[in-house]
Specification:
Layout: H1 2-9, E1 24-28, E2 40-44, H2 77-87, E3 95-99, H3 100-103, H4 106-119, E4 132-137, H5 141-156, H6 161-164, E5 167-172, H7 185-205, H8 212-228, H9 236-240, H10 250-263, H11 268-283, H12 293-315, H13 320-327, H14 331-335, H15 338-352, H16 361-372, E6 389-394, E7 400-404, E8 419-421, E9 424-425, E10 428-429, H17 432-439, E11 449-451, E12 455-459, H18 461-464, H19 468-478, E13 487-490, E14 494-495, H20 509-512, H21 514-523, H22 530-538, H23 543-546, E15 549-552, E16 555-556, H24 569-578, H25 583-593, E17 595-599, E18 604-606, E19 609-618, H26 623-633, E20 638-641, E21 644-648, E22 662-669, E23 675-676, E24 678-681, E25 687-689, E26 695-696, H27 697-704, H28 729-734, H29 748-751, H30 753-763
Parallel strand pairs: 3-4, 4-5, 7-8, 13-15, 14-16
Antiparallel strand pairs: 1-2, 6-7, 6-12, 9-10, 11-12, 17-19, 18-19, 19-22, 20-21, 20-24, 23-26, 24-25
Helix pairs in contact: 2-4, 4-5, 10-12, 16-17
Length: about 775
């Protein structure tokens, strides 16, 4: 019956004759493939035993997903298939058409539907977005009405039916006489088309009519979700944000915005309009499916907004209870204000204060304020967005604290060995001069520095006089899956002490007593001795990593001077000028990592290889000057990939309008998982890798989110050719897409310098 119906309804489709492997087989109705809403047909069999196993020859890539089953009992095959049907395939099915003859009658159909309803749906979308049921029976007309009613009563009485299906329709393809009339499938065709139309209308009304690109992506995500946990619910909205989730700092940003708005005394309506606009902008980047905005807010942002606003009210002490106490406080209580307590506490603090340094810290603070003014740490990022942090330690237990000019996404982990102090918080802003004052509060030199509401801090060198390791851990926290291109540690000089193969003997109590030995051990410890800390770090690196780690430190002539010996400054300066270390190699390393690589599109297959089309760019804020100085020192500098030249560095690759450096490159790899390696060859003797290399093309694809079909955080679209940030001629040429799949090379107009000049001449 089913084969006859499929041949009658879809005569030009191969649905009735296509491969019969596995649980379900999909093909398209060829008569609708060029329409706005093509129809996909998924053909399945009632029982797993009827399905054929996959043959040795396959036309599609096969992937294996191990499925952990809840409970100790391993499910039967049919039970597992029922879960696949109910919790995976139904997510993407508009109309489920069941032929009663395949199941052995309407009673068997009812049992299967009850089984699916008992398992329950995986979707958390609105109720109308559930599959519509169409049951096709071939029963004599005299008995059809009673049999159909009995099935409906049995199925609709199940409490889980309405959660799994949106409607139930039963039709009969046999006449009253029991014979098959001519054109008996025409009525079935009309009913099926109407069911499809109704479901499409429901999807349009609920903003869940997905494109084919999004359906394919959603199916992959739903399959992974089912493989991880078959009973788990699948959220289409959460899945669409799998590549860029809502920032965990969203409540904090909202709280900061509300505080600024209150400080400026702006009307509250501006706050809600601005917040709503920001949420819409974040929720719907280019390529994102247009879900219902209210549903997106409910699923992704409502809880975060409530948390942020509540935290803001808590910090402003504006809860309803406290607000009432302040407003309706008695006059007698109002006379004794909180300022009295603050004044009293100031006197107590002054009495309890004990001097901790032999130099006047007020003079230091005045000098720092004259140098840095009242600029907050948060306002110090330059054009390149440089992040930096200074070290300090707490008074109680010398915990290392990093005072930075940036915020870290998410909550700080406790196993990093340090505490991060962001530049802004509910406690206020940290100014540059305050951070400088904290990090210079060396014991016996200057008093510790107290920051408002943050606590009291002292010199960070007490815990990590060479903070290279905390710095590397900090970078790994910010950049989750990438390493430092270059690590440069700068010291203040060290005393060269020859290592004796024989340990010294006890001399006298004054030189080798407990206090003397404890002092020498502490001064030579990895915490206080920066050079020893670097040596310990250096010897733990592999030979390849050592090429990117540098140390600049001055071997002193004689003993180390004291920290406050100003008379030695001129001598130290002269020694530093004579001892430059490996400065030239460090400069070359920094110049090389100023360049970075971006993919312009996904890989293009070319026989056994894949072609990478990309661009080498510069992060220098003044690219023209940087390129001019680089080519002046190294006129034959060029980029290489595994021994193949990618072209010379030239001023022709600088945009005449915006000044950005963009060099188009292409190279081949055998697979996206293979490591690529681009380096800058300064001359025949010297070369250095550019930023982020060596690395796989998969890594760059993930970083740039080229496969993010639901949009990117930077609001760039992957649907068409990459759009540049400027409109100059060079950038327009860069955006020209490849004309056809057969032409795997870029047009010569994009690649050749002569052609580029000709185009500019025509434009003039």
């Amino acid at each position: 019956m089913k084969s006859k119906a499929l041949r009658s309804l879809y005569p030009q489709s191969a649905i009735s004759t296509c491969r019969k492997f596995g649980i379900v087989n999909i093909c398209i109705d060829s008569t609708t493939e060029n329409e706005e809403h093509p129809v996909l047909l998924a053909e399945s069999v009632p029982n797993y035993a009827q399905a054929k196993s996959r043959g040795k020859q396959t036309c599609h890539e096969a992937s294996n997903y191990p499925v952990p089953w809840p409970g100790l009992e391993i499910p039967r095959r049919q039970e597992f298939i029922d879960h696949v049907q109910a919790r995976l395939l139904s997510l993407f099915t508009d109309v489920i058409c069941l032929f009663a003859q395949d199941y052995g009658g309407l009673d068997a159909v009812a049992e299967r539907l009850i089984s699916w309803a008992t398992i329950g749906p995986a979707s958390n979308l609105e109720h109308p977005i559930r599959p519509r049921l169409l049951i096709v029976a071939n029963i004599s007309g005299n008995h059809f009405a009673s049999e159909a009613l009995r099935l409906q009563l049995k199925v609709l009485s199940h409490p889980g039916f309405s959660d799994s299906f949106s409607s139930l329709n039963v039709i009969n393809v046999l006449g009253v006489s029991g014979h098959t009339p001519r054109g008996h499938f025409s009525a079935f065709e009309q009913v099926l088309k109407e069911e499809i139309r109704l479901q499409r209308a429901a999807r349009i009304n609920t903003h869940t009519l997905f494109s084919m690109v999004h359906i394919a992506a959603f199916f992959d995500l739903a399959l992974e979700n089912f493989a991880r946990s078959p009973p788990s619910t699948f959220s289409f909205i959460h899945a669409s944000r799998d590549d860029f989730k809502v920032s965990p700092n969203f409540p904090e940003h909202l709280r900061s915005f509300m505080r600024v708005l209150a400080d400026k005394k702006l009307p509250g309506q501006y706050a809600w309009e601005f917040i709503a606009s920001a949420i819409i902008l974040d929720a719907f980047p280019p390529d994102m499916h247009m879900f219902s905005p209210s549903e997106v807010f409910r699923v992704l942002y409502r809880e975060e907004c409530v948390l942020g606003i509540q935290e803001y009210l808590d910090t402003q002490q504006l809860s309803a209870n406290l607000f009432a106490k302040i407003i309706f406080a008695s006059k007698a209580k109002a006379r004794f204000s909180i300022w009295s307590w603050i004044s009293l506490w100031s006197w107590i603090s002054w009495i309890m204060r004990i001097s901790g340094g032999r130099y006047d810290a007020d003079i230091l603070e005045k000098v720092l304020q004259e140098a840095y003014g009242t600029t907050p740490m948060f306002h110090t990022a330059g054009p390149s967005g440089m992040k930096y942090a200074v070290t300090a330690t707490t008074l109680s237990d010398a915990t290392l604290c990093l005072i930075s000019n940036y915020h870290i996404e998410g909550k700080q982990t406790s196993n990093l060995g340090y505490k991060h102090l962001p530049p802004t918080s509910d406690k206020g802003e940290i100014l540059i001069w305050e951070a400088a004052r904290c990090t210079t509060a060396a014991p016996t030199i200057f008093n510790p520095k107290r920051l408002r509401s943050y606590g009291t801090f002292q010199d960070g060198g007490l815990r990590n006089n060479n903070p290279v390791r905390p710095g590397i851990r900090l970078v790994s926290q910010i950049r989750k899956d990438s390493d430092c291109d270059i690590v440069l540690s700068i010291g203040n000089g060290f005393e060269q002490k020859p290592l004796s193969p024989v340990a010294s003997n006890f001399r006298n109590l004054f030189l080798d007593g407990a206090l003397a030995r404890l002092y020498r051990a502490s001064m030579e410890s990895l915490s206080l001795n920066g050079q020893n800390s670097w040596d310990d770090h250096w010897h733990g690196l592999d030979e390849e990593t050592k090429k990117n780690h540098f140390r600049l430190n001055l071997p002193l002539e004689g003993k180390e001077p004291s920290i406050d010996d100003t008379g030695i400054m001129d001598s130290l300066y002269q020694q530093t000028m004579r001892h430059q270390g490996d400065m030239i190699e460090i400069i070359r390393a920094f110049k090389a990592v100023t360049f970075f690589f971006e993919l312009d599109r996904s890989l293009v297959q070319d026989g056994p290889y894949f072609i990478c089309y990309g661009s080498v760019l510069s992060r220098s804020p003044d690219a023209p000057r940087f390129i001019r100085l680089l080519t002046s020192d190294y006129p034959y500098a060029q980029f290489f990939n595994n021994g193949t030249s990618l072209g010379y560095i030239s001023n022709d690759d600088i945009c005449k309008l915006c000044g950005r450096y963009t060099k188009l490159v292409e190279f081949r790899v055998r697979h996206s998982s293979d490591q690529a390696d681009i380096y800058l060859r300064f001359s025949r003797l010297f070369h250095r890798r550019i930023s982020a290399f060596p690395n796989t093309i998969d890594w760059f694809t993930k970083q740039q989110k080229l496969n993010a079909v639901f949009g990117q955080p930077n609001h760039k679209s992957i649907a068409g050719p990459r759009q540049s940030d400027c409109s100059c001629q060079l950038q327009r040429q860069r955006d020209i897409p490849i004309s056809s799949p057969g032409n795997l090379k870029r047009p010569h107009a994009v690649r050749t310098r002569t052609r580029r000049k000709k185009i500019r001449g025509n434009g003039d």
